[in-house]
Amino acid sequence: MLLPQTATIGIVGLGYVGLPLLLAYARAGFRVIGFDIDESKKAHLLRGESYIKHIGNADVAAALAGGKLDATTDFSRIAEVDAVILCVPTPLDQHFEPDLSYVRDTLDAVVPYLKTGAVLSLESTTYPGTTDEEVVTRVVARGLVPGESVFVVYSPEREDPGNPKFSATNIPKVVGGHTPACLEAGVALYQAAFDTVVPVSSCKVAELSKLLENIYRAVNIGLVNELKIVADAMGIDIWEVIRAAATKPFGFTPFYPGPGLGGHCIPIDPFYLTWKAREYGIHTRFIELSGEINRAMPQYVIKRTMEALNDKGKAVKASRILILGLSYKADVDDMRESPTFDLMDGFRKLGAEVDFCDPYIPSIGPTREHADWEGKQSAAWSEESISSYDVVVISTHHQSVNLQELDGWADLIVDTRNAMSKAGATKATVIKA
């Protein structure tokens, strides 16, 4: 089964997952319509502009000029598309339970306009059973028959923003279908744009496969974060330990400690499974313990910073503290779930004056959990600015930041990423945390 080149693809949710997907289908020669409730994203795209730093304007402009790209906030236009791919957030609520409101609201906006024969794919990371419980039930309630009049699939996103080795299309695409006919349609949809498609037997298998990928990382990061605390207490450099262990050519994969977990996947996705597992009377101890360790890391960094200031004869109260890096990972402008916010909140509660510096984020935009930081500007990168702080805490190691300059300008640096060791720092006092 092949997807006809005349098909129109609708991408709902034009963030870090949806926009690359939109451009991938446009490059593959399909007409694409992007749907989002954010008018500014629509406006950017219709001007041929990208609003995500690691995605260039040229790709958007080329798709627009070729007549392949359109964008809208009008969900009635779902009636124009032959396939709909949903890329909307699946956060946790304040009780660490799944918040599917974005998925449900989006489905309620999309399903009434589905044309007969359309493919409907959910890409948002979620617990096993979501596609059956949330997508299929709405489709059936409208009188459509999955596998006959509409084709329901689940295919988890695998984006790695800022990674130059992998684009939206060269990462193997896992696809599960509600019925065999749904799977066939889903494979055809993704084969049209992706190099490799991996079909699995059900939507539940596809849903759990994405959770396994992120739980694997979360548990191993929790392990190495705990080992960092132990190594620090013993006066051992955990980074040297990891380098030594990584020379083993089998049976070991290096993971690296940090100030806590960030991004929309690893801090959140494991708890989708812990929540669903409770329905079956199962307590996922490994997952929950790693979550506790990783969530505690910002407080460990704050403790180490307080100790470092104390050694300099300073209290954290009234100290000027600069956090270097607001985005959750290097070389992107994505600040979702960034542990830097926890560091900023924690230092501020202790009475410190807190700023951040990030070349990718000139000012803090709207966030769900940290609205009180909205509008705060990134500190200037200059000797006068950097030298005015009592301590600089490296939370994210952007490659574009000149660490030799930082070494010369800062008196005290708390380094959560081992960045200064790699830079060969010699002037500043550097404390690893």
Calculate the mean pLDDT score and round it.
95
> What's the CATH topology name of the largest domain?
Rossmann fold
Quick one: CATH class of the largest domain? Answer: Alpha Beta
Taking strands numbered 1, 2, ... along the chain, how are they ordered across the largest sheet? 3-2-1-4-5-6-7-8
> What class do helices, strands and sheet pairing give?
alpha/beta
Overall 3D shape: globular
N-to-C CA distance: 54 Å
Evaluate the radius of gyration: 23 Å
The count of β-strands is 13
Structural domains: how many: 2
Order of helices and strands: EHEHHEEHEHEEHEHHHHEHEHEHEHE
> Sheet with the most strands?
8 strands, mixed
Poorly predicted tracts of residues = none
CATH architect. name of the largest domain: 3-Layer(aba) Sandwich
Binned, the helix content reads 25-40%
Number of helices: 14
| The named CATH superfamily of the largest domain | NAD(P)-binding Rossmann-like Domain
Q: Strand content of the residues, in percent?
A: 5-15%
SSE blueprint:
Layout: E1 8-12, H1 18-27, E2 31-35, H2 39-46, H3 57-65, E3 69-72, E4 83-86, H4 101-110, E5 118-122, H5 130-141, E6 150-154, E7 173-177, H6 180-191, E8 197-200, H7 203-234, H8 238-245, H9 269-278, H10 285-311, E9 320-324, H11 339-349, E10 353-357, H12 383-386, E11 391-394, H13 403-409, E12 412-415, H14 419-423, E13 429-432
Parallel strand pairs: 1-2, 1-4, 2-3, 4-5, 5-6, 7-8, 9-10, 9-11, 11-12, 12-13
Antiparallel strand pairs: 6-7
Helix pairs in contact: 7-9, 7-10, 10-11
